[in-house]
Amino acid sequence: MRRKRCVKAGFFVVVILAILGIFFSNAAAEMTSSFHGYFESNFILRDADGLQHGFFDEAYGVQQRNTLKFDIDIDPDMRWGSFKVEKVHLTYRGAYDSIFDLAAHRYNIKENIGASRFDYGLKDIRFENDLREAFIDFAYNGDLGMAFFRPGRQIVSWGEGMLETLNDVINPPDNSYAMFFQSPDDVKTPLWMGRLNYNIPRISSLPGLNLNFDFLWIPDIRPSQLGPRDSVAGNLKAGLEAPYINCISLVDLRGLNVREDVPTNENEYGVKVSSEIGDNLSLSLLYFRDVVNDPAVQLKNWAMTPGGPAPSLASFTHNKQHVYGGYFSYQLVAFGTSAVVRGEISHHTASPIALAAANTIMQGPAARLPPSQWVGLTYLLKPVTKTTLSFDKDVRIRWLSNGVTKMSFEWLHKVINEWDDRLDNTYFKSRSTKIRADRKNIREQDVFMVQVMTWWWAAKVGPTFVAAYNPGKHGEGGTGMIAPSIKWYITPSLYSDLKLQAFFGDTKSSYSFGSLVNTSEATFKLGYEW
């Protein structure tokens, strides 16, 4: 264990020393650089019961975040024949969210972090001071093809999905301060990793074929970040009152100590093989050995209470699995017009699937074991296969917009490959009366989605509409999201941005939008970019 930690620490130190060496090398006088970024202040107002139940009739502030972010790119002009140091990249982001001071009565959160470095406290979501990316590109261009080796902290995305994550599981999401539908790089957690990308030389007999290999080794294991969750028995508002943790259904954990159990002694690694076939088709196949980003909950520290056996600890565990997948993109040209057809498939060997409350396993009491050995399991690990097929088309709809309207249609098919009756997620008010079926864990599911993006008023107004519908016996129900925005450049660098993000439809729909129907947010931004 100690040796593995030393190897990881040594890897991080070597990367930082290499970056510093670039700055102090003799070639520094020849290097060129670019510096760009922004400062932004924003305020987010949330409607507690959703737009379809009244327009911001229960509104309160959930964020007043002031953010400084900038990128530095350096070309050090260091060459050795076919080899060169091609780029040094640094990204910094710092932020202060004053909402926790302006509305301290609402957000009664513990100041310090919890038992591990992944247990956020108030100071983690109030302030940010982060060198998000720091990497070097060592490049080769010669008779053996083209390649680059990129060690450092970075973000890597695999996949073609629009609204659903199939193969893009490398960098865990950070949902501690924002809902999704933000800039993808802003809501991903950068990881320390080594990346080797290699293009083989062109094959003369197959001039239209281009073959690329992408290898990843990731010693930096992190989970999805959800914000403070430790509600601490006896102090129910110590953590789970954070603004964006309230968007996620964790209400059943209030009153429990919540701990993140992350296997940091593990490594992740993977390979992707991509090919461009002709001018119109790109195809990728991949494998990734994954420590699952999203947690599975295990209830521990059981004791007998007046109401029966009850736990005091919720352990967020992260299992290991294999991810196999592939995706393609095809530029379809026919009848004087063009469109893009995309597809993606993934097979996750051990996805955590939540059990219904009535099906939670409690091992111990029946065997007359002491309470310390009782276990509450709220999930099963099952292989899951997901498939998407998408169609993207830019159209001109004169009555809607003078510019281009982007339309995307996506079909998602999800199968839990090994079914278990405990996944039926049907629970009972009493032993004889069935009251509701929670349709999130059905064996096979189809979802049809549409996304429309257009621009009005010289691209200052950009409404977006997303809808998802679940047909079938178990998944019926429709949900949607609207996200109109108005971005106005006061000067070429100074801008204001107003945006609404609202969900509507069936709260019992099996698609994930259903749980967000009672959430609407309005964002007001003022920023300066350079």
Provide a descriptive summary of the structure in words.
The chain is mainly β and 530 residues long. It has one domain (2-529): Porin (Beta Barrel), CATH 2.40.160.10. It is built from 3 helices and 29 strands. The protein has helices at residues 2-23, 99-102, 122-126, and strands spanning 32-47, 59-75, 78-80, 83-97, 127-142, 145-154, 191-199, 209-218, 257-261, 268-277, 281-291, 296-300, 303-305, 308-310, 313-317, 320-334, 337-354, 361-363, 375-377, 379-395, 405-416, 426-428, 434-437, 444-453, 464-470, 477-482, 485-489, 494-505, 520-529. The chain has an 18-stranded antiparallel barrel. Strands 9-15-12-19-18 form a 5-stranded mixed β-sheet, with no helix packed on it. It has a two-stranded antiparallel ribbon with strand order 13-14. A hairpin with a 4-residue loop joins strand 27 (485-489) and strand 28. The longest helix is centred in the first third of the chain and has 22 residues, at 2-23. It is globular, with a radius of gyration of 25 Å. Residues 426-438 have low confidence and may be disordered.
Brief account:
By secondary structure, this protein is mainly beta.
List keywords for this structure.
530 residues, mainly beta, 18-stranded antiparallel β-barrel, 50% strand, globular
**Sheet with most strands:** 18 strands, antiparallel, barrel
What's the CATH H-level superfamily name? Porin
Q: In angstroms, what is the radius of gyration?
A: 25 Å
Number of helices: 3
Mean pLDDT: 82
Helical content class:
under 10%
What structural category do the secondary elements indicate? mainly beta
- In the CATH hierarchy, the architecture is Beta Barrel
| CATH class designation | Mainly Beta
Total number of domains: 1
What CATH calls the topology is: Porin
The total count of strands amounts to: 29
